[in-house]
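comment on this one:
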Amino acid sequence: MQVPVFVPFRPRPGGLAEPTSFPVPESPLAQTTALAGGLIQTLALARAPAESGRRIDLTGLDSQVGLLCARMLDLEPKDGRIGRIELIRLRAELDALAAALSRPPPAA
């Protein structure tokens, strides 16, 4: 029996891994924090199947995090300090996912 794999970061046919129906925030800080918030939510969703022992395909996560880092570097210093909070939250969510992935799967 083949177990379905949760694939949150695979690009869609339109080229974006994120939904396009949401309005785009106007300021660079708002765009950056929205991207970080989306990644945080996606990682939180990915953690649930990981904790139950399901496989997760994280293909594309590195490019999304790279995009976020590039956008953070483009911010003005005062905006970057505000955006840093989102990076700390993202790191915490990544650590939680890594911990879930490092645990052995539950016995069936």
About this structure: DSSP finds three helices and no strands in the chain. The mean pLDDT is 83. Residues 2 and 92 are 32 Å apart (CA to CA).
